[in-house]
Amino acid sequence: MRLRTLASSTLALTLIVAGPAAASATGLGSGPPDEEQEADTGELTLLATTDVHGHVLNWDYFADAPYPDGEELGMSRASTLINGVKETKGEDSVLLVDNGDTIQGTPLTYYYAQQERITETGETHPMAKTYNHVGYDAQVVGNHEFNYGLDLLAKYTQQVDFPVLGANVINDDDGRAHLDPYTLVEKNVSGQEITIGVLGVTTPGSRIWDKNNLSGEVHFDDPVETAKKYVPEMKDAGADIVVVLSHSGKDPDGQTWDPSKLQENVSTSVAKVPGVDVLVAGHTHQNEPSEVVTRADGTKALITQPNYWARSVSEVDLPIDVADMSIDWGSAEPEAISLATQGDVAEDPQIADLIDSQHRKTIDYVNTTIGSVTETMSASTSYYEDTAILDFISNVQSETVEAAMADTEYEDVPVISQASPFSRTAEFPAGDITIRDVAGLYVFDNTLGGVEISGSQLRDYLEYSARYFKQTEEGADFDPATGTNAIDEELDRPIPDYNYDALSGIDYDINVSKPVGERIENLTDEDGKTVGDDDTFILAINNYRQSGGGDYPVDDLNEVYNEQVEVRQALIDWVKDNEVVDPHDFYDENWRVVTSTQGPGGDDETGAEAQAEADAQAESEADGTSDGGDGADGAMADETADVSADADGGTTSANGSDASNGADSANGSDPSDGSGDANAGGELPRTGEELASTIGIAAAIIALGAGLVWFARRRRT
Asked: What is the pLDDT of residue 696?
């Protein structure tokens, strides 16, 4: 994919240098016109970005370093590409738009939304500085524009030099659009003025994800119905062509548009609205530069979705019939190309200068030392096994909610917690820990809530989370590389890591050999008691999940805590207050992925049956001794019982373990790390072959013992 993107970027830069002749030669833009067509056709160029998420410079604040070679990104590089197109095509014939999710996503944007909030300081937002310099004509709000409240969004819209659109964001009090629904932009094609109507719609999911910021203030209309309303109005107002900025993904395969459902991703359906010429999609972080939608009447619309984090800029060269200023594709298929920011693309030095002081202040902030860690804690395996670093999140969340529940009717209700593996690269290194270490672990601006949940609701919650794993053959080794990120059938895309939840405060197995909905086994509370349907817990939960983010079953959960505590800040404050992070204080390996049903205590059912049979045999032999057998017989029976006890699986000598430490060395566990269980730390279950081998050895020894007993009795007779 990267090679293709780089190739596209090279082609785009060639077009920039070679001009319209090169465009005609490649079949891009208006195609190879004859002399008569050249006189009647001009060109308007659309450039678009989406889901920039605060990435101004090619700088990873969590790594405190530039992004690696081949993975470069950021608006400072995108600006260079945009300026190149404007210089070649003429600025007055280039329309530049952004598709939302701009002011959230990096420590830079977080700092000026929370630490030195622009609504209080009056300082210009770094993204406003950047976008004003690049020269955008319009932007639509994304769902993350609402993360910091409507007041901060209002301040940002005041600071930018272009309209921020949101036609389907509706005020609760007067029923009017909260933001400008659309704008009419004047450009020039072949010396003549052309009017572009730019409509902005955004995913209605914000009503769920940012309910705490938006409830009672604004609501959301369906994007398709909104486009049907405004496209004709824009035409009547003088729009020659219509561009829709849709902060929404393309319609998932199999989805039927239903306006009553306020569906999250409907950009394909919006593009099918008559009169739409080009639609910029986003929100789903997919790199899909070009797709053509053909309506029932044969007319076409082009959908382009640039890559996220300013990894690319979409370029669409629109052939304009200057007679009526409409798009005339002729025999050419509508097409967009991707201008990639990776590789040999220079940074715009003016942007670096514009935000230099804000960038440096952010670096100083995230590199502030706030405590120390006794041993390295990594998130690299958190998406398939219980880890100390994920337990750190849940520990802080649980403590926060428990403290709030003191002296309330819920003070004796056990608190459990959810946490998601947001990052596979986050790490708390042994030694000093900084704010960026914590921010790299918890990358979203979520707040903490607490909800009441019953045992049956808890099981449903866990079963839904377990969809994340692909079904595996019973008894097979579980491979996280192929067994995770199962396809979400409804959305027709892999389930991301952040939509998998691990819970603390309870114990459970996830048996991935079972079908979805039947995977949670051995669900017990902290005392080892099986969780009943009517048992009650308080679940510490982030606002995204509590509001239904990821479509978790949370609609019926009663809220008992919501003090708008930001989770990331709570983690930072905990480290500051406690000074030392020691995983032994909170790490509890309470869940694991297995491929066969495990008995209580961690043994699979086959092993348990073998143990029961061995115990019965040993008891039978012991009975024989008590009936008059000699001391040799009794000793042999005792030895048989001892050996058969090893068939339990926790200390099986066939696997090279030492029965004295209770750890199976075949699993690579170290008794010094506090993991006494052979399956501790989410270790993978034994294969069927290993189990059969263990049982076979135990059975052979039992048979040998029985034979010796028989032989001894024969001698006695």
From this structure: 55
Instruction: Please answer whether residues 484 and 468 qualify as being in contact, where contact means their C-beta atoms are separated by less than 8 angstroms.
Output: yes
- Statement to judge: residues 137 and 239 lie in one domain: yes
Q: How far is it, in rounded angstroms, from Cα 40 to Cα 32?
A: 13
- The per-residue b/e assignment along 581-601, b for 16 or more CB within 10 angstroms, e otherwise, is bebeebbebbbbbbbbbbbee
pLDDT, greater one: 372 or 632: 372
Higher pLDDT, 465 or 644: 465
Could you tell me how far CA 229 lies from the centroid of its own chain? 33
Question: Which of 267, 278, 279, 276 is closest to 297 using CA atoms?
Answer: 276
Mark whether 351 and 434 lie in a shared domain: no
- Residue 580 is predicted with a pLDDT of 97
| Other CB atoms within 10 Å distance of the CB of residue 498 | 17
- CA distances from residue 230 to 203, 244, 602 in whole angstroms, order as listed: 17, 10, 61
Bridge partners of 293? 301
Is there a single domain that holds both residue 561 and residue 489? yes
Q: Is the pLDDT of residue 642 over 70?
A: no
Task: Output phi, psi for 174, to 5 deg.
Answer: -120, -5
Query: Does 267 reside within a domain?
Result: yes
Residue 328: strand, helix, or coil: coil
CATH of the domain at 516: 3.90.780.10
Residue 470 sits in the same domain as residue 335: no
Q: By three-state DSSP, how is residue 615 classified?
A: helix
Label the pairing between strands 369-373 and 580-581: parallel
CA angle 431, 437, 440 (to 5 degrees): 155
- Say if residue 473's pLDDT is above 80: yes
Is residue 376 assigned to a domain?
yes
CA geometry: angle at 11 spanning 139 and 308, to 5°?
35
Q: For tokens 């029961």, what's the residue? A: 612
Strands (E), 31-107: 41-49, 94-98
pLDDT at 682 over 50: no
Buried b / exposed e along 609-634 (16+ C-beta atoms within 10 A): ebbebbeebbeebbebbeeebeeebb
Q: Is the dihedral of CA 242, 247, 253, 259 positive or negative?
A: negative
Nearest Cα neighbor of 222 from 198, 247, 204 is 204
Shared-domain flag, residues 277 and 313: yes
My answer on whether 169 and 234 are in the same domain is yes
Q: Which residue has the higher pLDDT, 335 or 705?
A: 335
**If you search the block for the tokens 């270490």, which residue do you land on?**
437
Which residues constitute the domain of residue 203?
Answer: 41-361
Check if the beta carbon of residue 288 is closer than 8 Å to that of residue 315.
no
**Rounded distance between C-alpha atoms, residue 508 and residue 524, angstroms:** 7
Q: CB within 8 A of 520, min separation 6: which ones?
A: 459, 462, 463, 466, 508, 509, 510, 511
pLDDT at 17: 37
Tell me the chain's radius of gyration from C-alpha atoms. Answer: 31
Per-residue model confidence (pLDDT) at position 625: 38
Of the listed ranges 205-209, 411-415, 530-534, the least confidently predicted one is 205-209
pTM (2 decimals)?
0.73
Chain position carrying tokens 């027709």: 492
Percentage above 90 pLDDT, the chain: 73
Domain count, the chain: 2
Average pLDDT over every residue of 348-355: 97
> Among 8-17, 19-28, 336-345, 651-660, which range has the highest average pLDDT?
336-345
Three-state secondary structure along 438-498? HHHHCCCCCEEEEEEEEHHHHHHHHHHHHHHCCCCCCCCCCCHHHHCCCEECCCCEECCHH
Alpha helices by DSSP H, 217-345:
223-236, 267-271
The dihedrals phi and psi of 301, each to the nearest 5 degrees, come to -135, 145
> Which of 565, 581, 600 is at the close of a domain?
600
Confidence at 23, pLDDT banded by 50, 70, 90: very low
Same domain flag for 262 and 377:
no
